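Section 3.1: Structural characterization of target chains.
Under the original work plan, the team committed to producing a structural model for every single-chain target entering the pipeline before any wet-lab resources were allocated. The record below documents one such target. The sequence was received from the expression subgroup and is listed exactly as submitted; it comprises 623 residues.
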Amino acid sequence: MNRRAALLAFLVCSLAVLAYAPALRAGWIWDDDSYVTENPLVQSPGGLAGIWSLTRDPQSGEVVSNTPQYYPFVFTSFWIEHALWGLKPFGYHATNVLLHLLNGWLAWRLLLRLGLPGAGIAAALFALHPMHVESVAWVTERKNLLSGAFYLLAFLAYLRFDDERRARWWLLAFLAFAAALLSKSVTATLPIVLAAAVFWRRRRLGWRDLVPLLPFVAAGALSGWFTAHLEQVKVGAEGADSWRMTAYRLALVPPRAWWHYVQTTWFPHPIQFVYPRWDLDPRAVIGWIAAGSIAVLVLVLWFTRRRLSWAPILLVFASAVTLAPALGFVPVYPHRFSWVADHFAYLGSLPLIALAVLVADAIGRRFVPAPSRARAALAVAGVVLVAFAARAHLAARTYHDARTLWEHTLAVNPDAWIASTNLGIELMKDPARTRRDEARAKELFESATQSVLGREQAWSNLGQWHLVHGDAERAAECFRASLAADPTHRRSHGGLAQALIARISALGSTRAALDAIHAARMEIGNDARLAQLEAWVLATRPDPRAGDRQRAREIITKLVAQRPGDAGLLDTAAAAAAANGDFPAAVRHAENALRRASPAVQPQLRARLDLYRAGRPFVSEGR
């Protein structure tokens, strides 16, 4: 690298740091809790074993990861960072920025090796593109940055192997590709792009070129399958469309999504965290126009390939293939609220940027005199880069924290149900929330219930809101509405049980409480919390019947055996033991409960412990 190139690289890096400066001052946002701040594997010294291993889901029996997705390189990077600087967000954001700059340098090396014009300008545009703010400013999207680095490294190593045919370069390429897959499986399309690159360099593709790629194809297919499996059984992607809706999705979503990424790459406005999700309406003309225009584009590029060269064809092909996993061919969770997202296009934007530079270079060669061409190119590129940096800076400011992000999302996309739901959650999580915040959270949840795709989650959140405000009856109604929309919604099953228990606990009559427990069991099935409540009512009722006390002890003994460290269960076990006259056991259980209980309930537990020490059972005030 000569001095001039080094100076330009330094200026681009400096501009990128300025562009992403708001991200360096940002905190945590959506999903950062499950990936970092509340992930016990990331925060445990022995967590690496869990990060790299698989387990079986206790309910479905399916093989799943111990992390939200099986991306062990990503979670290992978080584990290392947590060991270095704990949960201070600056270090995580700084790592993201550095990885993105590394990817810009790798992109430059790759485009140079492919012999594409304007490689440096294209790499600089990639480094400063506003579309990539989502990947850089969002800690969770370390997936994009780390997988992108391994992807580009694998690409470069394979081109070196293609030149020299030395096994070490093939092995390095394969290992880097495996690391990319274990960081994010969307990189599975690399072998197809590699085949296109080999064809571009030689204008032919034979078995000698294809056979070395077969292990890449096998590894990519396995990784893609397992990610799709996790999306269905763990993450929550929609996969139960009718055959007709599936056909509409396959016909209408991918072409329109690809054009969206072309438009956003070349003209990055607007930039949104959640873009509007269009309906799968076969009567909508724009969907068929997008599909038809893809066919026209393919035909035009093919029949003009001798005049335009293969470069535009292969760059369009590379972008489509790289973006394919996120274009709607397979359902993923984010498609529930938008068919497109900026972080989906992190690697897929690079061929489109290179294509834009290629077109600009062709225009310059045709209309700009040779002596002025280099200066004109630098001037135009400089203006665009500064504009990109300014736009990226503004976008990065919206990632300051979760509330800022969702407020901005709703401001630009009022119909984003995911933003309504998550902003409501953030308002309720704030310990300094006001009554106005609580009222607004309720309005947001109620608004989100109108969405067909997000209503089960919105009803569940609304149920939790009513539980917090002591209205167990209304909460139960909301959880039932959630389960009507999605009978498998786990949080609503738990919430309904919690609401029913809260309602039962408020009943003054022991007989009424037992009848309500029976009715609740008929509705939600066997639930450990219902069983604990039944044991408590039987053990502490003022008018015990024959067998009540022994039945209470049998129930709670089984529950304590399953969860011996639960303070609530131990408290109930103490009451049941005292009801049966076994005061030594009651004292032992009560002391264990007191050691494990939160400070808020310790006075009540201590009062009951004093009763047991005096040889007296605890009796509730119910009738």
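The chain has two domains: 15-397, 516-623.
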